[in-house]
Amino acid sequence: MVEIKTDTSVNAMREAGRVVAEALTAVREAARVGVRLRELDEVARAVLREAGASSPFLGYRPSWAPTPFPAVVCTSVNDAIVHGVPTDYRLGDGDLVSVDCGATLDGWVGDAAVTFSVGTPRPDDVHLADTARAALDAGIAAAVPGNRIGDIAHAIGRVCRSAGYGIPQGFGGHGVGRSMHEGPDVPNEGRAGRGLVLRHGMVLAIEPMLIGGGRDAFYADADGWTLRTCDGSRAAHAEHTVAITDAGPRLLTVV
């Protein structure tokens, strides 16, 4: 089921999205060489707590997960694509980190992700992260009334494939609202002109995921959550919660 939000509801989601953006900003500022991933999770928890928000990630357990998720952020490092569990791992110089964060405020959810380098960035990582953001921008630009889900998917996939990157199949964006995952699914590759017609009031989490080595293959780590590239290449993830409006796409997860 796809819920059409009122303008008042979208404004409420904007406040949840603002908390997500503030948490991601704080985590990025804290992510220095030697910092543990668990410490980044604590930084995000503090932002949510100060805002009076809760986490849709903490305790989340979909049918495929062996255990509830134990943190308020996903921290995916280097060859981890998404869903990385914060551990005692200390960040090293040149690590590529993707951080995904959600917040629930007054019953509404925001969801976003960013990828960045710690310390001295590698040129290939910079290009990978930049391409993830470019793919996100392309998907957002296609998120207008009258277009279809396939137009978003096609725009994202074209940017990723043109750069020679892989796309993990079966994972992508989704609707968001009162819960973190709602209909519709938003693939990261597809055919233009296909799928559900976009309408004013729909809210989507658009989230390209790129595999640097060019292959699409991935596997689940021993923790049952972290998805890693099979070829050991690095990965990037970018995401915003976006409202479809007659005035154009409205980004809800910005400061």
Automatic annotation (TrEMBL):
Superkingdom of this protein's organism: Bacteria
Keywords in alphabetical order: Aminopeptidase, Hydrolase, Metal-binding, Protease
Coiled-coil zones: none
Binding-site positions, a divalent metal cation 1: D100, D111, E239
Known EC number: 3.4.11.18
NCBIfam families in the record: met_pdase_I
Subunit structure comment from the entry: Monomer.
Function recorded in the entry: Removes the N-terminal methionine from nascent proteins. The N-terminal methionine is often cleaved when the second residue in the primary sequence is small and uncharged (Met-Ala-, Cys, Gly, Pro, Ser, Thr, or Val). Requires deformylation of the N(alpha)-formylated initiator methionine before it can be hydrolyzed.
Homology family: Belongs to the peptidase M24A family. Methionine aminopeptidase type 1 subfamily.
Record's protein name: Methionine aminopeptidase
Provenance organism: Streptomyces chryseus
Gene: map
